[in-house]
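Q: A reviewer asked whether we had any structural model of the full assembly, not just the individual parts. We don't, so I'm hoping you can provide one. Inputs are below.
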Amino acid sequence: QVQLQQWGAGLLKPWETLSLTCAVYGESFSGHYWNWIRQPPGKGLEWIGEINHRGSINYNPSLKSRVTISVDTPKNQFSLKLNSVTAADTAVYFCARRPRTLAIDYWGQGTLVTVSS
Amino acid sequence: DIVLTQSPDTLSLSPGERATLSCRASQSVSGSYLAWYQQRPGQAPRLLIYYASSRATGIPDRFIGSGSGTDFTLTITRLAPEDFAVYYCQQFGSSPRTFGQGTKVEI
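A: Here is a predicted structure for the entire assembly that you could use as a starting point for your response.
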C-alpha cells in the first residue's frame, strides 16, 4: 500500500520560506513523478511542480522564480521550498504521486500553511 | 499553458439523477492525457478517470469519462449520496499540468 506522509511548518510570516517534505512508503521511488499541488481555502487546485527520481523537474511558470523542488532518493523523500511567501501563498499543500504516463493516483494528507504577520 | 474551463460551476441535482460535467481545453490535450478527480470536503482529491475514459481502480462504473482533443465530459449516470462533491479535470500531456477550476455537484 502506497502512503505519502508530509510535514512542515504550518505558520509563516511574510517573506519567510515555506518548506515541506513528503516521504513515500510502500513503493519504489523510481518510475514516477512526485508532485506538489496547493489549494487556497475555499478555492481550486493549483499545480506547483513535479520531479522524478533522476531530478528531472517541471515547474509551474507562475511560481518558478520562487520554487525549488528536490528529491532525496535514498530516503524516498522529496521536498518543496517556496521563498518570499505572502498571504496569497496561504493554502493546503499536497504532495502526490503521478506514474510516468498516468494521472495522480496517490496523495498526501495535506498541510495547511498560513502566512500571516 | 493549456487553460481548462469547466462548466457549469455548480450543478444542483438529486440522488438518482444523471450529472454531466464538461471540461474544455484552450488547445488540444496531447494523448488524451486528461484526468478527472473527485474531492470531498476536508479530503485530498481522488482519481476517478485517466486517459479521458479509463476508470481508476475501484471506481464504480456509474462514472464515465469521454472526449478527446479539446472537449471532455464526465458523466455520473445515477448520482449516489456520496457523489455530491467537487470535481476537477487536469491535463498532464504538457507542462504546466493545469487543473480546471472545478464543478461542484450539490443536492
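A: Points you may want to mention in the reply: Chain A has a mean pLDDT of 94. Chain A touches chain B at residues 35, 44-47, 50, 58-62, 94, 96, 98, 101-105, 107-110 (CB under 8 Å).
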